[in-house]
Structures are given as structure tokens and as C-alpha cells.
Write a structure and sequence with these properties.
By secondary structure, the chain is mainly alpha-helical. The chain is built from seven helices and four strands. A hairpin with a 5-residue loop joins strand 3 and strand 4. The longest helix has 30 residues.
Length: 194
């Protein structure tokens, strides 16, 4: 009689282990751990938690990256009940397995689309916030000071105090610094000719 081979699941990453592949580790209490490759076995021996390692299925489920609560996932549960062979039942089961796989793929795609739909807008707003928070890394500090002085002068003009001599005297330092920056821009050293 031909024995049916089972596709096991890796204890660490949750990936499939086909017959003849993987590593089996049996602990002193007779609990069996199966690993798909040496990478998973080594991580297990290092006592790493699969829920904290980003490339495992356990991580993806705990951080809501993959579909977790779905009726199609109940069919994957391991059952050890022996059932008498029935040809009709076997055919319906195989056709149902194909249909369930299609349904699961559609639901996973819908879950992914829903999770990603606002991602572009969030990244855009985050980038704008980073630019406004750290503008000093992009623009020179002198240019920022010049902009602030120009804003102060505009505010004074809007308030109507610019016509007074006292207001112009108070802005004397700002005007001289503005003139100094403009003068420094005009007087540059000529390039060396090669």
C-alpha cells in the first residue's frame, strides 16, 4: 500500500516542508520541531522569537500584514481522523480545495489593497513634514536668517511702522546684514583657468 506523504509546516517561519526536505529536531520531552532549512533551525537554537523576526509568517500575522481571521484558513488545520475512502467524496474534496485556494487568493489581494491604499498619501505627508522640520539641512543658515529678516521687514511694512524713522533705525542692523549678504554674493573669487 502506498503511503500518503504530508506537507509539514516549518516551526519557525511557517513555510511548507515537502517530503524528503527539512530538519527534524526532537526535544527531551518527545516534542518534535520541523524546520524547512538550516536558517530556521539556527534561529530556533538561538532562542529567537518567530513573532519578532520580520521574515516569518508569525511576524506578519501578529503585525496585521497577512490575513489572519478568515474561514478559508480553517481548512488548513491538521486532522488525524482516518476516513474511509469514497471516490465521489474525494472528487468533491479536490474540486473544493481548488475553489478554496482561489477564494483565499482573492481575499488576500483585497486585504493587501485595503492595507496599502493610503500608503502613498501617508508617505507624501511624512516627507513634507520631514522637509519642514529639517529645512536647515537643505538650506544654508545664512539664507534662513535672510528670509526671517525679510519677513520681519514685511511685517513692519504691513503694520505701517516702516514710515517712521524710529522703525527704520531699529531695522538698521537687519538692513546692513542684508546688504552684507548681497555684497558677499557679488564678490566671488574668479575661477582658476586650467
Amino acid at each position: 500500500p502506498k503511503a500518503n506523504m504530508r506537507i509539514e509546516k516549518c516551526y519557525f517561519c511557517g513555510g511548507p516542508i515537502y517530503p524528503g526536505h527539512g530538519i527534524a529536531f526532537v526535544r527531551n520531552d518527545a516534542k518534535m520541531f520541523r524546520f524547512c532549512r538550516s536558517k530556521c533551525h539556527k534561529n530556533f537554537k538561538m532562542k529567537r522569537n518567530p513573532r519578532k523576526v520580520k521574515w516569518t509568517k508569525a511576524f506578519r500575522k501578529t503585525h496585521n500584514k497577512d490575513l489572519t481571521l478568515d474561514t478559508t484558513l480553517d481548512f488548513e488545520q491538521r486532522r488525524n481522523r482516518p476516513i474511509r475512502y469514497n471516490r465521489d467524496k474525494m472528487q468533491t474534496t479536490l474540486s473544493a480545495m481548488k475553489r478554496i485556494a482561489e477564494i483565499r487568493e482573492k481575499r488576500e489581494q483585497a486585504f493587501y489593497d485595503k492595507r496599502i491604499e493610503n500608503k502613498v498619501e501617508q508617505e507624501h505627508t511624512r516627507a513634507i513634514k520631514d522637509l519642514t522640520d529639517h529645512i536647515s539641512l537643505i538650506e544654508a543658515p545664512a539664507a534662513l536668517r535672510e528670509k526671517e529678516l525679510v519677513k520681519e521687514v514685511d511685517m513692519q511694512v504691513e503694520l505701517g511702522d516702516a514710515g517712521d524713522a524710529s522703525a527704520l533705525d531699529s531695522l538698521g542692523d537687519a538692513g546692513s546684514s542684508l546688504a552684507g549678504t548681497n555684497a558677499s554674493r557679488r564678490t566671488r573669487r574668479p575661477r582658476k583657468s586650467t
